[in-house]
Design goal:
By secondary structure, the chain is of the alpha/beta class. It is 33% helix and 26% strand. The strands form two sheets. A six-stranded mixed beta sheet has the order 6-7-8-3-9-10, sandwiched between helices. It has a four-stranded antiparallel beta sheet with strand order 2-1-4-5, covered by helices on one side. The longest helix is centred in the last third of the chain and has 18 residues, at 184-201.
């Protein structure tokens, strides 16, 4: 990207509209012109009631759903009219995903799960495992490298999922209720670990959550109301 005041903008989204067909040929307008910028190293909370469109917004930003003519730029690359090949490439290199459920492969160790995305990109096993080990150690899992998911606690499993999402060096991290399946104390620990590593790597993170206390610890909070994003002061939640 060009140097200058906007050089730290990782995500630029303008005019996202998303509607879904319902009965009798009608449509349900979920997103009605959403604009959003995310900057490097910024952790932004996304809140809103169930059905407000949080997951739809994450899926469109993550290039998993059509953005219906919205202007979408990630890390300086325009994806407004991108081909499916370009979108797939971006999901491998530019975007990391974390979900409420970790979706770890049960037959792989923690190290193997985190190394796998790099192996998909063709990296040699030793190189993939070295980077995976470094991330897991950063997340406090240095003693759990050879454990399979069933041998890990819920919080440990989710930290492995975070490491897997970040291992390919994405510029953008999208998380959908990443602590929603955890107790409050573990939830805070996982969020703190995520925040620390996102800041260290300069990743832009958008985290959808129902946990308003957790959202209050983020740099910014945006709320989906009637299909549009409204800036919310974290301390007021």
């Amino acid at each position: 990207m060009n140097n200058g005041v906007m050089s730290d903008v990782v995500l630029s989204l303008r005019g996202l509209v998303r509607a879904y067909p319902i009965a009798d040929g009608r449509t349900l307008d979920v997103l009605k012109g959403v604009d959003l910028d995310l900057r490097a190293g910024e952790v932004v909370g996304l809140i809103g009631p169930s059905g407000s469109g949080k997951s739809s917004l994450l899926h469109c930003i993550g290039l998993l759903e059509s953005s219906e003519e919205a202007q979408l730029t990630i890390d300086g690359e325009d994806f407004t009219h991108a081909s499916e090949a370009a979108r797939t490439r971006a999901r491998l290199h530019k975007i990391g995903f974390v979900y409420q459920f970790h979706h770890l492969l049960p037959e792989f160790t923690a190290l193997g799960n985190v190394a796998l995305p790099q192996r998909v990109l063709g990296l040699p096993l030793k190189q993939a495992e070295t980077r995976a080990r470094g991330l897991l150690e950063q997340l406090g899992l240095g003693e759990r490298l050879v454990h399979q998911p069933a041998q890990l606690s819920g919080g440990e499993q989710q930290r492995v999922a975070i490491a897997r999402a970040l291992v390919n060096g994405p510029r953008l991290l999208l998380a959908d209720e990443p602590t929603g399946n955890l107790d409050p104390q573990t939830s805070q620990q996982v969020f703190d670990a995520l925040r620390t590593i996102v800041k260290a790597q300069g990743v832009a993170a958008l985290i959808a959550t129902h946990n308003l206390e957790l959202a209050g610890h983020m740099d910014r909070v945006v709320s989906l109301k009637d299909g549009r994003l409204v800036e919310t002061v974290p301390g007021s939640l």
